[in-house]
């Protein structure tokens, strides 16, 4: 064959590949064509970690937004800078008692005290796997402006200041165990986060690379901030190649002309690497095209057409807290089952202490969830929504973020199905007394009924209106009971 023809053929193939790799454009319609990854639809459960220098402040006064509230001397404010009352915030009072005036010892100084001595990425990853997670990763950067990796974008980073690249260690150990690697980015909120600091050390030009230029709410992002925001994402993706970039707050402060090019580049990165990638957006933020909608500590009332996500926390608050646990493994199982039945997944947060130790109470909760998943996981993993999400008296009162806890009864049933539709799983969210009555399989011919984890035969009958199953008294106690129904 003519050498020129061979060269031309190679050029055409290369050009076609390059074109495929640049499939997404920074426009709404192009980005919105991005599909939710199959791995996410199969995984159902993920774990991430709120663990940054903010943990130090939270240990001090129990304030998860410590870098913000430690500067609130004259008014008690919330994250939107709305006045909530007069008087100093407890974080300010606690900071002064421990460190002194924030003008002298500010957030820039608290950061330097974050020196974890007991962080063990392998131990964390083992725990996440034991809990049943199929995707996991760190809070890569919180509102506090401190990347949890060795960064060349800013001097305020874990590599330079704590002497460790936590993201690199977690990425290695998480992937080694077969889980997808995800990272959450909360730095969209940093632009407004340090506004109270400008009355203290935040206005010092020497600190502009941490607090940014003094500004007021609603002011446009500075060129410095825009470069910093995008630069951190670019660097992280290049270094650690996350399967999901979880975006807190989304476009609430990041304009489309900054966000859309990032989304296009990240989606195209997935095409180039031959992998499915995902992004998220909070349901209360402006929608990001092609992203998975995330409900913070919340859920939806009924099945959704598109996959969605709940981010919730295993402990009181997002960062480590000495408060008593307010969740049980039973409640966590019920929450997961309800979410999955409605086409959702759960991203569960754990909060290590400032030394990098996950407290035993949180470990016990995760192990309890994992023990249930080890027996009943086939009703959760790799499933799809059934014709109905469920039945029973307990209903979600408020849809969306912060929708509250529910206490389920033996009458509350949730359904999933195998991908091929030949098997339906009916999960009863409390121990039945004697008989389980299901109406969710009406119109389908049932062949067999089994209780997962129970070796004995079951007595059951089917009529036109319902399926009745005698619950075996010898069944072991469980957070929820999963029946395998073949059609």
TrEMBL record:
Keywords: Glycosidase, Hydrolase, Signal. Residues 410-486 form the Alpha-L-fucosidase C-terminal domain. InterPro entries: FUC_metazoa-typ, Fucosidase_C, GH, Glyco_hydro_29, Glyco_hydro_29_N, Glyco_hydro_b. Pfam families: Alpha_L_fucos, Fucosidase_C. SMART domains: Alpha_L_fucos (SM00812). Alpha-L-fucosidase is responsible for hydrolyzing the alpha-1,6-linked fucose joined to the reducing-end N-acetylglucosamine of the carbohydrate moieties of glycoproteins. This is alpha-L-fucosidase. It comes from Pontiella agarivorans.
């Amino acid at each position: 064959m003519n050498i020129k023809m061979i060269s031309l053929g190679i050029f055409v193939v290369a050009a076609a590949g390059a074109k495929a790799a640049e499939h997404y454009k920074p426009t709404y319609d192009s980005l919105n064509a991005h599909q939710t990854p199959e791995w996410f639809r199969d995984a159902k459960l993920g774990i991430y970690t709120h663990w940054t220098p903010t943990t130090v402040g939270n240990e001090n006064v129990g304030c998860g937004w410590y870098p913000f509230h430690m500067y609130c001397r004259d008014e008690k404010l919330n994250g939107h800078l709305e006045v909530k009352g007069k008087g100093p915030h407890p974080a300010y009072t606690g900071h002064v008692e421990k460190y002194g005036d924030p003008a002298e010892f500010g957030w820039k100084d608290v950061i330097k005290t974050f020196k974890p001595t007991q962080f063990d990425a392998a131990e964390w990853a083992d725990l996440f796997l034991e809990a049943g997670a199929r995707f996991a990763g760190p809070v890569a950067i919180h509102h506090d402006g401190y990347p949890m990796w060795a960064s060349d974008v800013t001097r305020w980073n874990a590599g330079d200041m704590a002497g460790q690249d936590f993201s690199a260690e977690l990425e290695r150990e998480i992937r080694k165990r077969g889980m997808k690697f995800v990272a959450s980015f909360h730095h969209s909120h940093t632009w407004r986060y340090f506004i109270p600091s400008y009355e203290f050390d935040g206005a010092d030009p020497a600190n502009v690379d941490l607090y940014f230029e003094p500004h007021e709410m609603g002011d446009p992002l500075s060129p410095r901030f825009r470069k910093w925001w995008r630069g951190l994402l670019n660097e992280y993706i290049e270094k650690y190649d996350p399967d999901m970039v979880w975006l807190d707050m989304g476009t609430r402060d990041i304009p489309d002309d900054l966000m859309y090019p990032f989304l296009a580049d990240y989606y195209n990165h997935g095409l180039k690497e031959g992998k499915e990638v995902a992004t998220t957006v909070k349901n209360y933020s402006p929608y990001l095209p092609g992203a998975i909608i995330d409900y913070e500590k919340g859920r939806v009332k009924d099945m959704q057409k598109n996959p969605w996500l709940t981010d919730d926390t295993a402990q009181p608050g997002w960062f480590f807290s000495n408060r008593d646990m307010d969740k049980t493994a039973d409640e966590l199982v019920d929450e997961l089952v309800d979410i999955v039945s409605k086409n959702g997944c759960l991203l569960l947060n754990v909060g290590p202490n400032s030394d990098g130790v996950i407290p035993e109470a949180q470990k016990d909760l995760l192990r309890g969830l994992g023990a249930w998943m080890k027996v009943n996981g086939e009703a959760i993993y790799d499933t799809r929504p059934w014709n109905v999400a469920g039945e029973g008296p307990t209903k979600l009162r408020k849809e969306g973020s912060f929708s509250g806890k529910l206490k389920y009864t033996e009458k509350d049933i949730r359904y999933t199905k195998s991908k091929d539709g030949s098997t339906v799983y009916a999960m009863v969210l409390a121990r039945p007394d004697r008989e389980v009555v299901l109406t969710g399989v009406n119109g389908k011919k049932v062949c067999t009924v089994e209780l997962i984890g129970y070796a004995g035969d079951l007595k059951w009958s089917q009529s036109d209106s319902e399926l009745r199953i005698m619950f075996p008294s010898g069944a072991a106690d469980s957070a929820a009971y999963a029946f395998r129904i073949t059609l």
